[in-house]
Amino acid sequence: MHKIILMFLFLAVAAPSVWGDPDEEQPPDPMLDSGQFSYGSDPNLFDLVPYADPKTSFDIGHVIFAYPESYRKVGDPAPVPLESVVPVAQVMQLVAPDKALRALVNQQLYYNHAFHLEQVELVSLKQIGYRWQVVWTLDLSPGGGSGVPFRYRALVSDRGKVIPPDLYIYDAYSLSDWRERLCSNLQLNVKPRPEQKKLTQQQIEKRGRMALEKFLSTVKVAPGKKPVRFEFLNCRSLALPMSVGADGEVKSLTVWGVNFKEVREADAEQTEELFTVWVSEYGAVSELKFFSREW
């Protein structure tokens, strides 16, 4: 793989106060308040989305942006030579962060953030051709922040087509045995079939409860341990900013969270953290996975 790095600079794209005063902490939605992967965590997003390219995929808050390793499909035009690759100025116009993306980032990270352009590079991939990759770091606006910064990546093909990532919303819950985690993961950018209709809140709650009950019945219990138990708390909707319409207004995608609380033994460490089974408006239920790690 060959790379041509064209620039390394920092530009601030100010985030408007979509979610309130950037100097004040934004109260997170309870479904987004915990259950995120931390840097270097085990499991991580690649355990939930195995096909995701580790060089380009990432997560921000509870949202996973998953790029496949090969983005060319059967019937796509052949790669173009280097001299015909779309110019960088056009690339930057195509992927400039819009207010829907900034609103999504602010929602997931609780504070207003600014996009700082970190790097633009032209990558040459075998049998795929050239591809632009644009990387921003996300920093608190105005100023501040510490630790490993979040990064946002956008990809553009050699002919100037924005390569959209697959989007997922996940939850990662640490059980009373800290070596065990329960995860849910729902793909967002899936178009419903024409015959599908939106479900009622009661129907969505029922699907989420049945999915968790069925999944937990399949989890093997080690000798001497008790089965994991959860109690239902509530079912709530969440609007995820997704795009900007022709009228300039942000369009959102509604997902539902069916929320549970683990029933722990009296001598175990107690927690207020929720576990969320995500369900789409049309009834698609998040994939559930159980991870047990031995160190």
Topology:
Layout lengths: L1 E6 L4 E2 L31 H4 L9 E3 L2 E4 L21 H8 L3 H11 L3 E13 L3 E12 L9 E8 L4 E2 L2 E9 L5 E8 L13 H16 L13 E15 L5 E13 L12 E6 L6 E6 L3
Antiparallel strand pairs: 1-5, 2-5, 3-4, 4-9, 5-6, 6-7, 7-8, 9-10, 10-14, 11-12, 12-13
- Silhouette: globular
How much is the radius of gyration in Å?
21 Å
Give the mean pLDDT. Answer: 86
Q: Order of helices and strands, N to C?
A: EEHEEHHEEEEEEHEEEE
What is the number of helical segments per DSSP (H or I, 4+ residues)? Answer: 4
> In terms of per-residue confidence, which ranges show pLDDT below 50 for 5 or more consecutive residues?
7-25
**Share of residues in helices:** 10-25%
Total count of domains = 2
Count the beta strands.
14
Terminal CA distance: 35 Å
How would a crystallographer describe the biggest sheet? 6 strands, antiparallel
Structural class: mainly beta
Keywords: Signal
Signal peptide: 1-20
Q: How would you briefly describe this protein structure?
A:
This protein has 295 residues and is mainly beta.
Could you characterize the architecture of this molecule?
This protein has 2 domains: 2-167, no CATH class; 169-292, no CATH class. Helices cover 13% and strands 36% of the residues. It contains 4 helices and 14 strands. Strand 9 and strand 10 (180-187) form a beta hairpin. The radius of gyration is 21 Å and the shape is globular. Residues 1-20 form the signal peptide.
Provide the descriptors you would attach to this structure in a database record:
295 residues, mainly beta, 2 domains, 13% helix, signal
